[in-house]
Design brief:
Largest sheet: 5 strands, mixed
Strand order of the largest sheet: 1-6-5-4-3
Helix content: 25-40%
Shape: globular
Number of strands: 12
Radius of gyration: 21 Å
Strand content: 15-25%
Order of helices and strands: HHEEHEEHHEEEHHHEEEHHEEH
Structural class: alpha+beta
Number of helices: 11
Length: 347
């Protein structure tokens, strides 16, 4: 990689104070479970979440641990702007930065955020806690869905008891959700996949409760009549939040920054106007063939989108990509626009 390319990403991720602050965080345990296709294509470098399940006297504790990117990617930095521009179609961060400073990997201590949820014997959440932690992933704890299935078939495996408990909890969580929604049969899912899905949903629900309890603004989503998700900074009952995929979803990175600032006793990193601006852009990027919905200061506006892009627009997009140093390939698009990070000056 050229020196010019490296210079785009300044060393904000290796600040001298980072090691000292990391020592203050307690260690947590975790396993990662990914799909076989993810492993086959080498995408496991983007491993940003782990989980751990423990039996208690009154039920179970489910702990979901996520890479703390707020400790790595400074707000409004070149890396931050790149992540915002990437949208959904391209990686948010360069592979070399992900591998060196972000992904959960064997032998590396990472700053993390842990969401611990206490379940009673009926698998109902009783309490939850979000805290700053650190995680060093063990080599044996990097698994695929197939690995988990094989472990559950072998009572002599060293992790059989752990995954039996995790499988039991995940199935009961899913059954509780299934009773109140139109979910497919449990048998359609591999155990490893179901564990990840259920524990991530549980963690994000705990986070949205944390935001609501402290009247915190963030990036929330809601759906209506089967439409695409709509982003809004104002919470209402039933809204969801994403805080467990900061390497893949920009709104998760923003929510993580807000959450971490609260835990550190710092001022919110974003004003309401800044969150409004970010939600507006995120909604503009949530396109379908027929229409999109924009939420800006609480107003929903249907917008018609042309089904095809003119040749002139295609040429303009190719020229923009060339000037920006982006790959020339174009996916099917419905509207030509460039993500521009709104003014995120100091609050």
């Amino acid at each position: 990689m050229s020196a010019e390319r490296r210079s785009q990403f300044p060393p904000e991720k290796t600040q001298p104070s980072r090691k000292e602050s990391l020592k203050e965080r307690p260690f947590v345990q975790g396993v990662t479970v990914d799909s076989e296709s993810t492993h086959a294509h080498g995408a496991t470098r983007k491993r940003d979440d782990a989980f751990w399940v423990a039996k208690t006297d009154t039920g179970y504790t489910v702990n979901v641990t996520v890479t703390d990117l707020s400790d790595v990617v400074a707000k409004n930095s070149p890396l931050d702007k790149r992540a915002f521009r990437a949208g959904r179609s391209r990686p948010m961060f360069p592979d070399e930065v992900v591998d060196k400073d972000m992904t959960l990997k064997s032998g590396q201590v990472r700053p993390t955020v842990s969401i611990a949820v206490e379940l009673n014997n009926d698998f109902v959440p009783v309490t939850s806690e979000v805290k700053l932690t650190r995680l060093q992933l063990e080599r044996a704890n990097k698994l695929t869905h197939r690995d988990v299935s094989k472990i559950l078939e072998n009572p002599h495996h060293s992790m059989f008891d752990f995954f039996s408990d995790a499988d039991h909890v995940a199935k009961n969580l899913r059954e509780r959700r299934q009773a109140t929604s139109s979910l497919g049969p449990i048998s359609e899912y591999q155990s490893g996949s179901m564990m990840v899905e259920e524990f991530i949903l549980l963690a994000n629900k705990a986070v949205v409760n944390e935001f609501a309890a402290h009247n915190m603004h963030g990036i929330f989503t809601f759906k209506k009549d089967g439409q695409s998700p709509v982003y809004t900074p104002l919470f209402q009952e039933g809204y969801r939040i994403k805080a467990t995929a900061p390497m893949r979803k920009y709104e998760a990175l923003i929510n993580q920054r807000i959450l971490v600032a609260k835990m550190k006793g710092e001022a919110p990193p974003y004003t309401m106007q800044q969150l409004n601006d970010i939600c507006r852009v995120l909604n503009e990027n949530t396109l379908s063939a027929e229409k999109m919905r924009i939420v800006y200061e609480g107003e929903r506006i249907p917008v018609q989108i042309p089904k095809k892009v003119t040749e002139k627009a295609k040429l303009e997009e190719q020229r923009r990509r060339k000037n920006a140093g982006e790959p020339p390939e174009m996916r099917t698009i419905f509207r030509i626009r460039r993500n521009v990070l709104p003014n995120m000056g100091e609050v």
